[in-house]
Amino acid sequence: MRYRKLGRTDLNVSEISLGCSGFWGNKKFSGKNASAIVMEAFERGVNFFDTGHNYSKFYAEPRLGGIVKEILSKNDRSRLVISTKGGNAIGAWQPSFLLKSGAEKLPQNFSPDAIELSCSESIKNLNCDYLDIFQLLMDESEINEQLVQRLSQMKQKGMFRYLGINTHLESDMLFISKHPEIFDMVLIDYNVLQLDREPVIDKLYQAGIGVVAGTVLAQGHLLRGKIGSLKTGSYFWYLARTMLKSTSRRLASSSKEMRDVLASIAGMTASQAAFSYILGNKAVASCVFGTTNITHLIDVIAATDKKLAKSDIVSIRKAYQAMPCKISE
Fold first, then answer.
1. In angstroms, how far apart are the furthest CA atoms of the chain?
2. How far is 269 from 260, CA to CA, in rounded Å?
3. Band of the pLDDT at 226, cuts 50, 70, 90?
4. Which of 136, 112, 129 is closest to 184 using CA atoms?
5. Mean per-residue pLDDT for 181-199?
6. In the chain, what are the domain boundaries?
7. Mode of pairing for the β-strands spanning 185-189 and 160-166
8. 319 vs 296: CA distance, rounded Å
9. Which of 13, 162, 284, 289 could be joined to 48 by an S-S link, Cβ 3.0–4.6 Å?
10. Exposed, middle or buried by CB within 10 Å (0-12, 13-18, 19+), for 44?
11. Distance, CA of 111 to CA of 29 (rounded, Å)
């Protein structure tokens, strides 16, 4: 595993990080298997684990916390970089067949008190004493002086070390790039179907903001036949997301040519090619992804030792330019 410095922070994060959410955090997925994935990632050098307070119906954090407790029983706290999110009480998207009425909507509360409470509960859930990174799930319109002041106080109290935002909006990314005195990092969607992200990523990098790339496999649409696993039950969960979520439908409709290009690259799997391209961007500190399959985990981690040929990079960019429409909002 290779490591990169996260922006101006003193954190050296693994190039591949594990997202602990989605079906991984679902009660329908075996806790034993969920633990095995995290342990395998840690043993292979992954030190950066990302989740969210409300993910998987508030089950992801406690699940990860139990595994963190086990890891820390034999390892120093400095071996882990733990990141979670608070601020937006909308639950992680769930397929409608798992809920009574489509995407779960929970009350929103962006007040300083609610943010601090969320952070405090996350620390308890994750058994980690403090958060290395606390990310806000809100857009720039909700960032105000009172909230910034409270976040500063929380940081001084040792609740978290660094502050970030998880966003899919370019307007938020530009806002963050203009306020490096407040924010240390950002988690964004960036993959070979979203190369139009690169100018704003460069602005963030120049401002000293650490950039973490999510959805590197475009929610699985960059892999042939990859939606989920019938064995674990995730197949129908991810299939429903593909059909019901507008961003996922756009990714699915634009991915065919790129999927073929990635699959044709010699010496690596399509997953490795997708991650290798993103890791070729020096502005990206880490690529976060989630999985319920250890074989897939090992395959992606191996991408850190792969390097695309110049001709492969040209083919990927040509496939991107040929896309009928752009994905990024």
1. 53
2. 11
3. low
4. 136
5. 96
6. 3-321
7. parallel
8. 25
9. 13
10. middle
11. 33
- pLDDT score for 324: 77
**β-bridge mates for residue 187, sequence order:** 166, 212
Strand stretches in 217-328, DSSP E: 284-289
Which tokens is 130 given?
């403090």
Phi, psi of 327 (to 5 degrees): -85, -40
Buried b (16+ CB within 10 A) or exposed e, 287-300: bbbbbbbeebbebb
Dihedral over Cα of 263, 260, 237, 215: its sign: positive
Beta-bridge mates of residue 288 = 17
Query: Which residues contact residue 194 at a Cβ distance below 8 angstroms, ignoring those fewer than 6 apart?
Result: 215, 218, 326, 327, 328
Question: Has residue 85 got a pLDDT over 70?
Answer: yes
User: 67 near 35, Cβ under 8 Å?
Assistant: yes
CB atoms within 10 A of CB 112: 16
Nearest-angstrom CA–CA distance, 54 and 62: 10
Question: Do the strands 210-214 and 284-289 form a parallel or antiparallel pair, or are they unpaired?
Answer: parallel
CA distance 59 to 75: 24
CB contact at 8 A, 18 and 37: yes
Angle in degrees, CA 19, 267, 263, rounded to 5 = 65
Q: What is the pLDDT of residues 91-118, one digit of tens each?
A: 434 444 444 434 444 557 789 999 999 9
* DSSP label at residue 323: -
Distance of CA 271 to the CA centre of its chain: 16
The single-letter code of the amino acid at 236 is F
The answer to whether 240 and 96 are in contact (CB under 8 A) is yes
Give the whole-angstrom CA distance, residue 53 versus residue 215: 19
CA gap 77, 18 in Å, rounded: 17
Q: Which numeric CATH code is attached to 3-321?
A: 3.20.20.100
